[in-house]
Amino acid sequence: MELGQIISTIVGGFLFPFLIATMWGRMVEAFGPIGGWMAAAFIVGTMWAMNHGLGMIYQSGTAWVDMAWAAGTGLFLADVFAGKKINGSTILAGILGGIIGGFILSTFL
């Protein structure tokens, strides 16, 4: 992995949770529930196109859930650094959701 690939991977991994944290809630506030769907399409779609379509995140080998890890760790650490109380049941729900989602994907990928 070259230095340019390392930098672009870090930036691509940072931008995704940053956009989620700064835009998703505002879109829901402005447009209601449809704002959440719009945020999902715009934020996730745009970042997927940048990270994978343009190759901003470097990948070698088999498929990897890089954007899910970026979103999960980025938003978790943002809450930690903001001094928010971390609820154990929320962490458990996130882990279980990831396991269930991974299992479902493994059945057809």
TrEMBL record:
Matching InterPro entries: DUF6905 (IPR054200)
Keywords in alphabetical order: Membrane, Transmembrane, Transmembrane helix
One Pfam match: DUF6905
Lineage: superkingdom: Bacteria
Residue stretches spanning the membrane: 6-24, 31-50, 56-78, 90-108
Protein name (Swiss-Prot/TrEMBL): Uncharacterized protein
